[in-house]
Amino acid sequence: MRSQFLTLLCILTFLSCTWGIVDAVVSFSQTEAVSETTQIERKNKPDDTSPKQYYEDRSSGNVPLPNDEEQVRSLAIASFFYSLITLVGAIFMFRLRRVGFWIYVTGVVCGFILPVALAGFEALNISFGVFFSLLFVGLYWISLKEMH
Fold first, then answer.
1. Alpha carbon distance 14, 20 (integer Å)
2. 60 backbone dihedrals φ, ψ, rounded to 5°
3. 101 backbone dihedrals φ, ψ, rounded to 5°
4. 1/100 Cα distance (integer angstroms)
5. At how many degrees (to 10) do helices 129-142 and 69-94 cross?
6. Contact, 75 vs 126, CB < 8 A?
7. Which are the contacts of 72, defined by CB distance < 8 A and separation ≥ 6?
8. Is the C-alpha dihedral spanning 86, 21, 18, 111 positive or negative?
9. What was the pLDDT predicted at 126?
10. What is the rounded CA–CA span in Å between residue 27 and residue 52?
11. N or C end of the chain, less CB within 10 A?
């Protein structure tokens, strides 16, 4: 029987991976738009009710997205495979299959290696979400005894 803790981890992973796949597909299919909106400086005022654009909040902190279309496309491919592999691993773990943990770990490793291989070391600044996956690896490790 699956614990509530493992169920919660899997559901959070499902949501994160689904968002990552959708984001990667949008980034890949609309590369020009993504690369044109590298950094938007906007001062938020309390009375500012203008809607935010999709690409506006995509950079993490002060690190802007790359403006090179090929690099955006490469990062989208890396993000797609990272999200897909970790999603498959989470599905297996949700079904209490231990092999899912190792698939998930493989996905996390791909999440570190692919961006660097395809876009250089600067890509690690942009793919910060992969670092949270390390935390999830540890949390899944705690639940590994439930799986067979």
1. 10
2. -95, 115
3. -60, -45
4. 16
5. 10
6. yes
7. 27, 31, 34, 35, 65, 66
8. positive
9. 64
10. 17
11. N
- What the block records as the tokens of 37 is 């909106």
What's the pLDDT tens digit per position in 50-73?
655 555 444 444 444 566 788 888
Find out whether 64 and 35 touch, Cβ atoms under 8 Å.
no
Q: How many CB atoms lie within 10 A of CB 50?
A: 8
Residue 103's Cα: distance from chain center in Å? 16
Q: 96-140: per-residue pLDDT in tens?
A: 999 999 999 999 999 888 888 887 777 776 666 777 888 999 999
The residue-averaged pLDDT of 27-52 equals: 66
- What span, in angstroms and rounded, lies between the C-alpha atoms of 40 and 42? 6
At 3, which amino acid appears? Answer: S
Decide: 67 and 36 in contact? Cβ < 8 Å. Answer: yes
CA angle 50, 51, 52 (to 5 degrees): 120
